[in-house]
Design brief:
This protein has 216 residues and is α+β, with helices and mostly antiparallel strands. It folds into 2 domains: 55 residues, Alpha-Beta Plaits (2-Layer Sandwich), CATH 3.30.70; 154 residues, Leucyl/phenylalanyl-tRNA-protein transferase, C-terminal domain (Aminopeptidase, 3-Layer(aba) Sandwich). Helices cover 33% and strands 29% of the residues. The strands form 2 sheets. The protein has a 7-stranded mixed sheet, sandwiched between helices. Strands 1-2-4-3 form a 4-stranded mixed sheet. A hairpin with a 2-residue loop joins strand 8 and strand 9. Helix 3 packs antiparallel against helix 4. The longest helix has 15 residues.
């Protein structure tokens, strides 16, 4: 199947027409309108060589809040209240750390300065949300993503202290469960997310669940 070039028109090809690896289109901009249209369509951006690439993999990696797994060691950290948990108090710092903090097995980051600015704008519009873990007054871990209806689309996380990002993620997932969020879109497989209960879902089913979640 072709990889579609995007222009100024706010339109995406059907997600079902993506390549086997999930790549669907390239180009376009990072306007709030385009990003929100992408997420509502089951599509998300990554960057390569400063070019926006738009993806819709099959299967999709999804965490249903009721299937969240919390290890015994993490339960001990919660019992000890190892970190202080907040939401939306340090979005700019969270995404900045996600862009800068090195990750094992990765030589760089897909979060460009333009993408960082685009998600800051989405946060200001009330669409992008962050969860934070603190040690005292020091931000040591967190994650961010897009919330739409009863869906939460996770984007990235970081840790400066062992288990800090996991603490923030689990705390936020529990909160989303209380608020009847249908699922957390984790996009693609990682062992870390699998350990928390995320699992592959056929894209067809994911898109159906997304449409239902967007109805609120």
């Amino acid at each position: 199947m072709p990889i579609y070039p995007l222009d100024d028109k706010l339109i995406f090809p059907p997600p079902e027409e993506s390549e086997p690896d999930g790549l669907l289109a390239f180009g376009g901009d990072l306007s709030s309108e385009r990003l929100l249209l992408a997420y509502r369509s089951g599509i998300f951006p990554w960057f390569e060589d400063d070019i926006p690439l738009w993806w819709s993999p099959d299967p999709r990696f999804v965490l249903y809040p009721e299937e969240l797994k919390i290890s015994k060691s993490m339960k001990q950290l919660f019992k000890k209240e190892m970190f202080r948990f907040t939401i939306n108090t340090a979005f700019a710092e969270v995404i900045s750390n996600c862009r800068k903090v090195d990750r094992e097995g990765q030589s760089g980051t897909w979060i460009t300065k333009d993408m960082e600015q685009a998600y800051l704008e989405l946060h200001q519009l009330g669409h992008a949300h962050s969860a934070e873990a603190w040690l005292g007054n020091r931000l040591v871990g967190g994650c961010y993503g897009i919330r739409m209806g009863k869906a939460y689309c996770g984007e990235s996380m970081f840790s400066l202290v062992s288990n800090a990002s996991k603490y923030a993620f689990i705390s936020y997932a529990l909160l989303l469960k209380e608020e009847s969020i249908s699922f957390i879109d984790c996009q693609v497989y990682t062992p870390h997310l699998e350990s928390l209960g995320a699992r592959p879902v056929p894209r067809k089913h994911f898109l159906e669940q997304l449409r239902n979640a967007l109805k609120g």
